[in-house]
C-alpha cells in the first residue's frame, strides 16, 4: 500500500463528498492507496454519505466512532493506516487533481521523513486569498534539510494537511495528537524536531477552504485556552528533549508569537478573558515571553507591565478594526 489518506469528518454533509472524491481523482491505481474516512459521531447525514461512497469505491474505508474530536480521529486513522505515506485532509477541503502521486514520488526519490507542499487558500464566495498561502515559498530552506535546521528558519507550517509523512517514521517515534483545539501547532514542531530529512515541494497540491463556523469555533473562549494548553505542551517538550540552544530559542519564539496572536484573537471575538489567559500562561510557566524579532516590544511590555500589555493589545485591535 503506497498511501493512506486520513479524513476526520464531523457534521460535514455539505463538504465531505467533494473532499473524498478529490482524493479519488488521482493518477494512482485505486488498489495502491486507501482513504480512511472517520465519521466522528456526526448528527447529520455525514455517515450515510461516507457509507454510500465506500460501497461504490473499495478504496474508501468508512469508520464511525462516538464524538471524540479531530485529534482522536486522526490518531485512530494513524493506528489503522497501512500506506507507506500518510496524508491528512480536513472534510471542508479538497486535493488538487493528480497531485498525490507527485507527493509520493518526491518522498521516495529523496528518502524523506516529511514533505511540505503548497496549497490554495479559498475564502468566502470562492475567492482565492493570498498572503500566508505562499509563506513556504518565501521562507522554506531549499533542498533537503534536517528537522532541526528547518525549525531554525523560524517558519513553521500551521496545519498537518500541509505535510506528507513517512509512516515508518511516525510509528518509530510514536507521534500522537493531543486532544485539544490547535493541536496542529504543537504536533508539527515535535514531528519536525526528530526528522532527519525534510523537503519543500513547490507545487500546489491542496485546497484549504476557510469555513467561517470552524474558524469561530477555534476562537471561542475554550479555543483560546486550548491554544495555551497546546503551547504549554510544546514548551514542556522543548525543555525535555531539545538540547540545541538555537533550536530551543526558535521554538520559544514560536510559542511567544502564538500566545500573543492568541491574545489578539481574544479581542476579535469580544472576549473578556484576557486576565484569565495571562494567569494560565503564568501558571504554566510560559512567561516571561521571549523577546522575538517581530514582537519584541510586546514581549517586553508583557514581562514588566502585564496590565498595560492587555490594554495595548485591546487598543491595537480596536484601532485596526475601526480603520476597516
UniProtKB/TrEMBL annotation:
Superkingdom, natural source: Bacteria
InterPro entries linked to this entry: Glyco_trans_2-like, Nucleotide-diphossugar_trans
Domain Glycosyltransferase 2-like: 4-119
Swiss-Prot/TrEMBL keywords: Transferase
SUPFAM superfamilies xrefs: Nucleotide-diphospho-sugar transferases
One annotated GO molecular function: hexosyltransferase activity
Database matches in CDD domains: Glyco_tranf_GTA_type
Protein name: Glycosyltransferase
Amino acid at each position: 500500500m503506497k498511501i493512506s489518506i486520513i479524513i476526520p469528518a464531523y457534521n460535514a454533509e455539505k463538504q465531505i463528498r467533494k473532499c473524498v472524491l478529490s482524493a479519488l481523482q488521482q493518477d494512482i491505481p485505486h488498489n495502491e492507496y486507501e482513504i480512511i474516512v472517520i465519521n466522528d459521531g456526526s448528527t447529520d447525514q455525514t455517515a450515510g454519505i461516507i457509507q454510500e461512497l465506500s460501497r461504490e469505491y473499495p478504496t474508501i474505508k468508512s469508520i464511525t466512532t462516538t464524538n471524540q474530536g479531530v485529534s482522536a480521529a486522526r490518531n485512530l486513522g494513524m493506528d489503522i493506516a497501512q500506506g507507506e505515506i500518510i496524508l491528512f485532509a480536513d472534510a471542508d477541503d479538497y486535493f488538487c487533481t493528480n497531485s498525490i502521486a507527485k507527493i509520493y514520488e518526491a518522498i521516495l526519490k529523496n528518502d524523506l521523513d516529511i514533505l511540505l507542499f503548497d496549497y490554495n487558500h479559498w475564502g468566502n464566495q470562492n475567492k482565492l486569498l493570498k498572503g500566508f498561502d505562499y509563506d513556504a515559498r518565501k521562507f522554506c530552506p531549499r533542498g533537503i534539510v534536517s528537522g532541526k535546521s528547518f525549525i531554525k528558519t523560524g517558519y513553521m507550517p500551521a496545519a498537518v494537511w500541509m505535510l506528507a509523512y513517512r509512516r515508518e517514521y511516525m510509528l518509530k517515534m510514536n507521534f500522537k495528537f493531543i486532544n485539544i483545539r490547535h493541536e496542529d501547532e504543537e504536533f508539527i514542531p515535535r514531528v519536525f524536531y526528530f526528522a532527519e530529512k525534510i523537503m519543500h515541494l513547490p507545487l500546489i497540491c491542496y485546497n484549504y477552504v476557510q469555513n467561517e463556523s470552524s474558524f469561530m469555533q477555534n476562537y471561542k473562549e475554550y479555543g483560546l485556552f486550548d491554544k495555551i494548553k497546546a503551547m504549554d505542551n510544546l514548551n514542556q517538550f522543548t525543555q525535555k528533549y531539545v538540547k540545541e540552544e538555537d533550536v530551543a530559542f526558535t521554538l520559544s519564539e514560536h510559542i511567544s508569537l502564538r500566545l500573543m496572536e492568541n491574545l489578539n484573537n481574544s479581542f476579535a471575538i469580544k472576549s473578556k478573558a484576557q486576565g484569565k489567559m495571562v494567569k494560565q500562561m503564568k501558571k504554566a510557566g510560559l512567561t516571561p515571553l521571549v523577546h522575538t524579532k517581530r514582537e519584541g516590544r510586546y514581549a517586553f511590555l508583557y514581562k514588566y507591565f502585564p496590565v498595560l500589555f492587555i490594554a495595548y493589545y485591546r487598543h491595537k485591535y480596536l484601532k485596526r478594526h475601526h480603520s476597516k
